[in-house]
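User: Second chain of the day. Same drill as before.
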Amino acid sequence: MPYLLNIFYVALLVAVSPWLLWSAIRKGKYREGYAVKFLGLVPRREGSRPCVWLHAVSAGEVNLLQPLVDRLRHDFPHCDCVISTTTRTGFEIATKKYPGLSVFYCPLDFSWAVRAALRRIRPDLLILAELELWPNLIREAHRHGTFVAVVNGRLSERSAQGYGRIRQFIRPLLRCIDLIAVQSEEYAQRFIELGADPSVVHVTGSMKFDGAQTNRTNDMTTRLRQLAGISDQDIVFLAGSTQSPEEELAIATFRALKDEFATLRLILVPRHPERFAEVAQLLERSGLPWQRRSKLEESRGEDARILLVDSMGELSAWWGVAHIGFVGGSLGKRGGQSMIEPAAYGVAVSFGPQTRNFRDVVRLMLGREAAVVVQDGRELTAFVESCLRDRERMRVLGTRAQKLVSEQLGATTKTTALVSWLLPDAKPQRRAA
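Assistant: Same format as last time:
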């Protein structure tokens, strides 16, 4: 089976190689980590301490895992933790977020690459965030005696249907996993129906809520507020994790309202760094005064009401200065980005209709009337205007959202308790059970 998968992966790489080459040239993607990705030459771990390898695909999963990493390092100081990621953005954020840990690109799912990585890392436990069912990685880890856990697991109806078509292949793969900690009963049932051992499937809730900051006066947010010159009178409209054409719609909203509401400010935080230049050109063409986050130290005192955040890893802190928010990736086909961070700060939250990646969170928020769905640019402008005209409505929306987040906390504690049974000190108990 590993050899068949290797052949399939090679054929797939050949098929998509023109697109990969174009992305490398035009967008700067896929230029790094070839020795790691194709040969598994991850940083070699020294010493004989127990080790937990945590894998987060991209920026969202990197942020998601932080509370769990913090708990593991605190509760099990005798264990090493290492972090792998797939995307360049995820790698950059992980490097900043975990400066004391080994951070590397995850090898591609070729049997020889994952085998080499496992030999060099020698993990006792491999933790995969959400739904990363890489067959060769999971099987090789299992064969090496490494426990495997899926945390914050989710399995949409569409994914379950797709996996169901290859159930004979998926069932033995799921039986190589020692813990599947999922966000809801619905997801748990889907994993079990695909063949997971019911005894290893546990409902813990979503860890996405646990990593959210609720204190608007935290050090990072306070520093950024001062750096940007945001006053107590300003009303900040922040469009975060945006993709085209969402920045253009946010700019149009600001243009439509700025004259009547002089205290309005706009902050744009594009999802991907390769789009910073594109959004900067968009702002130049708008004719409106604007600033770059990277130039704030040089441009203090300028009267620009629009800020382009052209830096990585700061969105969470910037949400803390916002009063009105739009969560991007939701007016196109991407499926949305996390709306939990603005909700936790008490921002009046809006997003588009395409939010399949956060279906459960959206269902909760809309059920509590703690967010608003906007279908297009016109409705986005109407939402921001309604918040500016009715400050009490803006406050109530934010309060409901913040209260909802506070009620969902605790998934990390439950997950850590389950994961602890797979750590070296608990292995004899686990096997005996």
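The CA atoms of residues 348 and 395 lie 7 Å apart.

User: Great, on to the next one.
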